[in-house]
Amino acid sequence: MISDLRTRDSDQPILADICIIGGGAAGITIAHELIGSGLSVCLLESGGVDYDPPTQTLYEGITTGQPYFPLDATRLRYFGGSTNHWSGWCTPLMDIDFKPRPWLKDSGWPFSAEHLHPFYERAQHLCRLASYAYDRAPWPEDPPLPAFDPALIQRRFWQVSQVEPWDMPVSFSTAYRPALELADNVEVILHANVTSIEATENAQAVDHLRVSTLEGKTARVQAQYYILACGGIENARLLLLSDSVETAGLGNRHDLVGRYFQEHPHIPVGEVFVGSLLHDRLQGLQPHEHEEVVFLAGLFPAEDFQRRARILNTSIMLGDILPIQAEHPIPLPGRLLRYGPGPLSLTHSAPLFARSEQLPDPESRILLSHDRDSLGLRRPHLHWKLNDIDCETISVFTKLVGAEIARLGLGRVRVADWLREERPSFPPDLYGGNHHMGTTRMSEDPRKGVVDADCRVHSVHNLFIAGSSVFPTSGAGNPTFTIVALALRLADHMKDLFTLDHAYYSR
Amino acid sequence: MTAFPASVGKVLEGQDAAAFPLDTEGLSDIFLDPLQAIHLGRHYLDQHEGKAKPPLEWAALPLGQQSPPSRLAEYFAKTSRRDLQGGKVQLVDGWVMTPTEAGACVWAALSVRAIS
Lengths: 507, 116
Ligand SMILES: Cc1cc2nc3c(=O)[nH]c(=O)nc-3n(C[C@H](O)[C@H](O)[C@H](O)COP(=O)(O)OP(=O)(O)OC[C@H]3O[C@@H](n4cnc5c(N)ncnc54)[C@H](O)[C@@H]3O)c2cc1C
What we know:
The complex is a heterodimer. Chain A is of the alpha/beta class. Chain A is built from nine helices and 20 strands. In chain A, strands 1, 2, 3, 7, 8, 9, 10 and 20 form an eight-stranded mixed sheet that branches. In chain A, strand 2, helix 1 and strand 3 form a beta-alpha-beta unit. The longest helix of chain A is centred in the C-terminal third of the chain and has 26 residues, at 480-505. Chain B contains six helices and three strands, in the order E-H-H-H-H-H-E-E-H. The complex binds flavin-adenine dinucleotide. Residues 21-27, 44-47, 74-75, 77-79, 81-83, 85-89, 193-194, 229-231, 234, 238, 434-435, 467-468, 478-480, 483 of chain A line the site of flavin-adenine dinucleotide.
């Protein structure tokens, strides 16, 4: 069922077994998964079903440090969340992304990639993707790739759904609203802004939520379990705002909430020039449509190479391989490799683009600013900080790709200007992927993480967090596929909890 | 020079060279246009003016104008292969090259300077 707090009759507290805060990819996945579970579920969503400027302005905030998108442009505040305008790129994190990497401080998840695989396979269906294949092409006629040394470079895919009628990536609102509308054990309440999470006196549990419409109508929500699913910036903000019992913010005894903000730095890294007969060999790195899903290929540093070079994970993608136009001749030095007719002439080029992991750094963080939104709540302040290793990773991998292309005699890479310095630093046109990660990171150790391996806030026994804020590290893959996999895992966990609770009470 | 950690080179060491097919023809192509080699070599020297000398081994390259071009190409192909297997690359005007290739360009630029 879908209702609206503005027109809801009762003044009584809203009661549920499970209350989900936020209706984006994470919140919708959990609510959808709990349909027919016999549990009463309430999903509180700040916005309506359409974009609404006054609600969207609640997302404004300030940014300092590395220049970033305005905070109200990098996410959407209505039902479906940022999946209403996302690009749909999906890929699982790689095995190495979950492992502790001794050369990277604060790396390592509490579980392995293998543990998450069954959930990724289920997420595949929810994200409307094709076969579960990311390190090999699932179509028979895959063109042979250049023989990159597998100890150095590997090819992996992203999948992007194309949903009728516009061939757009799946919107979680459009796809799952009909089922939620029909569900009798789930109530989605629109225009319900959670303004604080009120803890019990000992701060070991959530007692209730305070909720408000933009017009000032308030409500109180009580549930046995609460799941915070408002996105990577807002999850931290809401915990910091919930300071009536724990003055530093709920779940923030160890000053970790909001810290370790990570993005995926996105940046052009150069151009590859290839020969007339050889550019076919790069076709396996071009987009391919299969089972009505677009597969995008990228080059990633092999696990072994990351370990030996002591870098983060990263990826390089080729843009379209196009013939070099006479009006844009190959730059002078490139003609070194013979320009003109002949099998080894450089006749085609493609831009190279990196999307990369960022080092988790406690100084890169979400804080509360002194400005207030129209609900009277302090706005978020993002201080985005990058480190030398973030830049070094992209620099080393770009040169490795260049060296491999040279070794295979395919052509030559010319790196972007900013990479030509002896000690490169990021240029101002670096941007992120609208991926907000790490601000309520996961660790078994309460001194190192806000949530445990079950995504439960350490010390607050009935509060869970869903979304990329729980990622301890972020790999080089886009986050939402992992968000959905973790949300499915959390939904299973909630069902298990109630089975256990039921067994306990019926003894 | 960006040298990947020696350990990366080690990944490649002791393995059958055939496992790392190298298009020697592609590499030797660099010598088809000596003017461009000179251009790049000058670029390198400008960039490193006063900061670094070209590595000694470059000066010792067994070249001389007398060397037949095919032997030259063969020499560079061989050492370039060694460079790549050792994980070494050099940026010259943004181009990812092996140090041997870069050395060849510098050598070409220096020989012109010596003549003129
Ligand atoms: C332009 C763009 C392109 C992107 N492309 C990709 C891509 O290709 N691949 C990828 O993996 N990711 C992509 N992303 C990121 C992706 O959209 C997010 O990772 C994903 O939507 C996060 O899901 P979520 O449920 O955690 O948060 P969100 O989708 O942000 O949902 C949070 C929900 O919580 C609600 N909410 C917030 N505060 C409150 C409150 N106080 N009370 C009640 N409700 C509240 C919001 O209204 C919203 O509906 C893109 C993002 C953008 C902006």
